[in-house]
Design a protein that fits this description.
6-stranded mixed sheet, 14 strands
Length: about 325
């Protein structure tokens, strides 16, 4: 005779959709991306370019000319799982016993499941923020090798506009203060935009929060800090005299990289339309442990790499 212990006591599964949604919709770089849901593995971004030629309209002898060219750029998502378990009896001998529900001899119930769920989601969001920019499936780093990030994707296309117009070297670096160069570098990068981008709405210049801090410090030191301080909240500010929003993001910290484009050009792909994306927490009687599992899909792509302005220090 044996016991059937396959039934799971779920704590937070009823919040599954909301918790997974937070991976995409809480404030991160993805606030400025175009979201593409329903991606199972690889979806194509269908693009078209039109060429047309003016002709003499004074007669009826016009000749058909011009083309409509269709191209695709593939957006591939990585499948990601976070899974862990812990024994609630480990809490009994410490002050942490107060976290267990009273009168529960089996200790299979906890009173802080929502706090665990929130902490797990926040940790995953931090990992995603870095991977969205620095992701590389060829890397040995488990935090960034589930999908390719925007740096690898844009660099691989080789068609982005060079925003380091002054050919500043790594030896010089991005500097701040009264003699700093960060304000000049950002101005030069913004001025390097292609004409079609300059007139577009929703332009964003992504920099690391470390570079953003240097920018603020330099404007202060040069007495150019002539905007309302509240405009700088949450590492965002409009570049003075330009229709570009400067955004400092954690994912670019330590890279000395900068990327400018329209929000419509940066794509974040995910699924969120079936049970392959979920957050579960349950007590497993067989193991006498509480487990959690998070499953989701995520991937990045840009539609038109030649409409991105990127900054890289010269080696």
């Amino acid at each position: 005779m044996s016991f059937d212990v396959s039934t799971l006591t779920n704590y937070v599964n009823e919040q599954s959709t909301d918790l997974i949604s937070r991976l995409y919709f809480e404030k991160t770089s993805s606030d400025y991306f175009t979201l593409q849901s329903g991606v199972k593995k690889t979806d194509a971004l269908h693009l078209l370019a039109v060429t047309a030629f003016p002709q003499d309209g004074s007669s009826c002898s016009a000749t058909a000319s011009g083309d409509v060219v269709f191209t695709d750029r593939d957006l591939t998502v990585g499948q990601i799982t976070y899974f862990s378990g812990f024994c609630m009896k480990d809490l009994i001998s410490k002050y942490t016993q107060i976290l267990l529900r009273a009168g529960n001899a089996e200790t299979e119930e906890i009173s802080f499941e929502s706090e665990i769920a929130d902490s797990v989601i926040k940790t995953i969001m931090e990992h995603n923020e870095t991977a969205d920019w620095q992701g590389d499936t060829a890397s040995a780093n488990v935090y960034i090798n589930r999908y390719d990030g925007l740096i690898k994707t844009i660099d691989a296309a080789t068609t982005a506009v060079d925003g380091n117009t002054g050919a500043v070297t790594a030896a010089t670096g991005i500097t701040s203060g009264a003699s700093g160069n960060v304000d000049t570098l950002i101005t030069d990068l913004v001025n390097a935009r292609p004409s079609k981008v300059k007139s577009a709405p929703n332009q964003v210049l992504f920099v690391g929060q470390d570079t953003f801090d240097k920018y603020v410090d330099t404007l202060n030191a040069k007495n150019l800090f002539n905007v309302n301080a509240t405009d700088w909240a949450n590492y965002t500010v409009n570049v003075v005299g330009k229709n570009v929003k400067l955004v400092g993001v954690v994912g670019l910290d330590g890279t000395d990289r900068m990327f400018l484009g329209t929000q419509e050009n940066f794509f974040l792909g995910f699924d969120l339309q079936n049970d392959e994306e979920e957050f579960d927490m349950w007590y497993e009687k067989k193991d006498d442990k509480v487990y959690y599992r998070v499953k989701f899909k995520r991937g990045l792509q840009v539609a038109y790499p030649n409409e991105i302005v990127e900054f890289t220090l010269v080696p």
